[in-house]
């Protein structure tokens, strides 16, 4: 790679929503899916789980593509300090939505930027972005109907806010509006800037 060439940027995620978000930055990037065990460790806090997994995802991709900039991300939802993961099935998703209705849930979206270049300014950057989401108090019939329509069984919290799931929410509070969808772009652009990535060039 030439000395002044932009580094290869890789998104370590299988999520189409993260890919769509990263495309907003108009940077060339590739997508690789990390293969790691996402099971929480015994006694691990939800925030610690998200932080550990985002780093492990970035490390897994970096081992396949050394010398690159790798983005890792993980999201964990919590209610009363209890982790709410990906439901996997309709019944699990319905139970999650029943538990969360009328309540406020915290979504921990952990972001990692791993810079594998030999002269990296900041080899490893990690941040957890919290989003506070209040769910509407809806009856079982509405929750069940939503799940049949959107089938968000791969989403922590069983609701796709970037889709019809937004109708389940009463309010969203947080510092980064893209964090809830899974990739905090404000935090990411700060990390990329520290890594020497330019988003705008002056016209002459």
Account of the 3D structure:
This protein has 204 residues and is an alpha/beta fold. Strand 5 (104-115) and strand 6 (124-135) form a beta hairpin. It has one domain (9-194): Maf protein. It has helices spanning 16-23, 46-64, 90-100, 140-150, 185-194; strands at 9-12, 30-32, 69-79, 82-84, 104-115, 124-135, 169-174. The mean pLDDT is 92.
Topology:
Blueprint: E1 9-12, H1 16-23, E2 30-32, H2 46-64, E3 69-79, E4 82-84, H3 90-100, E5 104-115, E6 124-135, H4 140-150, E7 169-174, H5 185-194
Parallel strand pairs: 1-2, 1-3
Antiparallel strand pairs: 3-4, 3-5, 5-6, 6-7
Helix pairs in contact: 3-4
The residue fraction in helices comes out at 25-40%
| Approximate strand percentage | 25-35%
CATH topology descriptor: Maf protein
Global structural class: alpha/beta
Poorly predicted ranges:
none
| CATH-derived architecture | Alpha-Beta Complex
How many H/I helical runs? 5
Brief write-up:
The protein has helices at residues 16-23, 46-64, 90-100, 140-150, 185-194, and strands at 9-12, 30-32, 69-79, 82-84, 104-115, 124-135, 169-174.
What attributes does this structure have?
single chain; 204 residues; alpha/beta; Maf protein; 5 helices; elongated
